[in-house]
Amino acid sequence: MAKIAVYDMNKKKVSDLELNDAVFNSDVKGYLIHDMVRYQLAARRSGNAKTKSRGEIRGGGKKPYRQKGTGNARQGTVTAPNHVGGGVVFGPTPRDYSFKLNRKVKKSALKSALSLRFKEEKLTVLNDLQVEKISTKGFSEILGRFELDNVLVVIDEGNANVELSARNLPHVKVLRSDGVNVFDVMKYRNMLITEGAVSKLEGALA
């Protein structure tokens, strides 16, 4: 099994951690990572372009003028597409851009993304991540000790002090272990993860 150093918040090595090869040291399949990123981005698209058809235009109940004797072409309603302000023929309607990916593909894509960060030596493990109070400056100092400026921070459970301390830092995002996803893993160059979060990810993906 692959091993990785575990540090405390002062960047002192405290132990070595054996990683599950199936999760953090598997084959990196770029095409699965690509498919998963496309899947996540497509699900975010709203598809809100919309025009009204003639049946959705208000009014049009009364015939605009009599059938014969006016010299004009016969007209039944002002909501017809040939009238200004009438309905649009075959106009855009809201659509769903999302598509389906199998559960095995999603899990395998996340394993590939995590394995890529490990093999690139962009993965840092902390024995624990706790801050006494909400402090952006204090949290920034922790990241500075590890020389991390573009980082995804993964914690094993909710921690308001950590999450709020990192909220205003640019290029930093805090996620709980159950919210880790391929898009965010690939978006940030580095990962800072707690030992507890590693255990939870291995339990969910192994």
What brief labels describe this structure?
206 residues; Ribosomal Protein L4, Chain: A; six-stranded mixed sheet; 7 helices; 6 strands; 33% helix; 16% strand; elongated
Please give the structural blueprint.
Layout: E1 2-7, E2 13-19, H1 21-24, H2 30-44, H3 103-119, E3 123-126, H4 136-145, E4 151-155, H5 160-165, E5 172-176, H6 182-187, E6 190-194, H7 195-205
Parallel strand pairs: 1-3, 3-6, 4-5, 4-6
Antiparallel strand pairs: 1-2
Structural domain tally = 2
SSE string, helices as H and strands as E: EEHHHEHEHEHEH
Whole-angstrom Rg: 28 Å
> Any idea what the shape is?
elongated
Explain how this protein is built:
With 206 residues, the protein is of the alpha/beta class. It has a 6-stranded mixed beta sheet. It has 2 domains: 133 residues, Ribosomal protein L4/L1 (Ribosomal Protein L4, Chain: A), CATH 3.40.1370.10; 51 residues, no CATH class. Strand 1 and strand 2 form a beta hairpin. The chain is built from 7 helices and 6 strands; from the N terminus they run ββαααβαβαβαβα.
